[in-house]
Structure formats: structure tokens, C-alpha cells
Amino acid sequence: MNRTVNCVKLGREAEGLPMPPYPGDLGKRIYAEVSREAWQGWLKHQTMLINEYRLTPIESKDRKFLEAEMEKYFFGEGSSRPDQFKAPE
Fold first, then answer.
1. In 3D, which of 10, 9, 30 has the Cα closest to residue 19?
2. What spatial distance separates the first Cα and last Cα of the chain, rounded to whole Å?
3. In 3, 8, 43, 84, which residue has its Cα 20 to 30 A from 54's Cα atom?
4. CATH number, domain 4-75
5. Beta carbons of 14 and 35 less than 8 angstroms apart
6. Which helix (H) or strand (E) holds 5?
7. Are 16 and 5 in contact (CB under 8 A)?
8. Paired sense of beta strands 4-7 and 12-15, if any
9. 8 and 75 in contact (C-beta within 8 Å)?
10. pTM here?
């Protein structure tokens, strides 16, 4: 049986993640409070951030930026798109 969580991003009960998706306390909090569906939304948003800002996840400063954006995306005011971003048609 799949576990469910009261997803903070979706505002409803939904299928939870099978394991913490990120190390440390942030990963534990995401595991406890974020659904699979919301996590998939983050992965798409993160990909857009990496591409638009030309981030390199092996760089410490870029990882810190992405971690801060992840926290905002789920638990803060939300992670916004870059001003110059235009969604593909």
C-alpha cells in the first residue's frame, strides 16, 4: 500500500514519496509533507532553473541556490521563474 501525505504544495491528501528525495532535514521534511505529484512539479521547475540560469549542480554555490529555491517552492513564498523565461509553446 502506498503511503499518503497531506501535501503542503497541493493542499490535499496525495500519494507520498517512497523515500526522502534529498539529504538532511530538508529531505526529511519533504518526505513527510510533500506528495509525489508535487515533487514531480519541483523536478520540472528545477530543470527550468538549471537551464535558464545555466547552473552547474556540481558547483557548491549552484547547489545552495537550488536548495534555497526548493525550500521556497515547497514551504515558502514559492520559487519564481526568471524574468526572461518564456514557456515553450
1. 30
2. 38
3. 8
4. 1.10.3880.10
5. yes
6. strand 4-7
7. yes
8. antiparallel
9. yes
10. 0.86
- CA of residue 83 relative to chain centroid, distance: 19
* Farthest-apart Cα atoms in the chain, separation: 43
Query: Would you write out the chain's pLDDT as a tens digit for each of its 89 residues?
Result: 589 999 999 999 999 999 999 999 999 999 999 999 999 999 999 999 999 889 998 999 999 999 999 999 999 887 777 667 666 66
Give the up-direction half-sphere exposure of residue 68: CA atoms within 13 A in the CB hemisphere. Answer: 7
Question: Residue 25 corresponds to which cell in the numbers above?
Answer: 532535514
Q: Residue 41: what residue type?
A: G
Q: How many residues does the chain have?
A: 89
User: Is-contact 54 85, C-beta < 8 A?
Assistant: no
Joined grid coordinates for residue 31: 518526505
Among positive and negative, which fits the CA dihedral 21, 25, 28, 33? negative
